[in-house]
Amino acid sequence: MKGYFLALLIFVGGAISHTSYSQTFTMGKKCRALLDEAKTLLNNEAYAEALAKLDEFSGSCKTKDAKEQGAINKAEAYNNLGQYESAIKEADYALDVTKDRSLEGHFQKGIALQNLGDVEGSKQELGKVIQLTEKNQNTSERANNYALMARVYARQLNEEDSAMYYLDKAMALAPENTDIIIQKGDLYLYYNEYQEAYTTYDQALALGHEPLDVYQSRTQVGLKKMENKYGTTKVQELRKKMTDEEKSTLCSDIQKGLDLGWKDMSMDMFSAMICQ
C-alpha cells in the first residue's frame, strides 16, 4: 500500500506547480511556543505526550490557523498510535475550518483510510492533494509543499528515498530557504547518516541560518553518533570511551551553542563532565 502512496505522490511531484501549504501562521508567540513543543514531542515519537500538549494548545489558541494546526498534528499523533478513527475525526475538523483546503488534513485522512483498508477513500484524499497543489502558483509555498511531503514520508511512512526526493525538489525551488536545508540535515540524522547531517547543517550555516540552531543540531548529531557507537547514554561511560578527536568535535559544537546563548542545564553538565 505504501507503493500506492509513492506512485501517486511522485505524480504530484512531477506534475504539480502549486500548493496550499504555508508555514506563515496567524497565532501569538505563546501559541507558537506550545505548537513547537508539541511538534518536538511528535518528532521524538512521544505521541501521547504530544496529544496532551496539543490539547493545551487547542484550549488556548483559537485562530483559524491554530485550529488547523492543532487538528492536523493530533491526526498525525493518532495515526502513529494506530487510532485511525480519531485521526480521521481530527483531519475532518482541519478540513472543515479550512473549507477543505488543508493539504495535511487530506494527507492525514488519506493515511488513516489507507490503514483502515479503505483504498478508494485514500485515493480520493490524495487526489484532493493533487487538486490543491495544481491551483497554487506560489513557488515558495510549492517548496513548502514538497517539504511537507518529505516530512510525511520520513515520519509516517519511513521511506527515506521518497523523503529525500521531495526535499531535493523543495531545495531546488527555494535554495535560499535554510529551514528546508535544516530539515534535510534532520533527516540524515534520523537515519544515522552523521557525516551527511554535519555537511548539510554547515551548508545551512553558510547560507545564513541562525547559528544557534545549527550548533544545537550539530550537537544532536554528535550525541547520537557517540551513543550509538558506544551503546550507552551514560555520561561517565562516554567520557571514558570517547576519543580525544570525538570529544573535541562534540565539545566545540556544545561550547559554540552555549556561547550563543543556549540555555540547557543538561548541556552545561555534559560539558563540565566531558569537555573539561
TrEMBL record:
Sorted UniProt keywords: Repeat, TPR repeat
InterPro entries: TPR-like_helical_dom_sf, TPR_rpt
Keyword field contains Transport: no
TPR repeat boundaries on the chain: 178-211
SMART domains in the record: TPR
Protein name (database record): Tetratricopeptide repeat protein
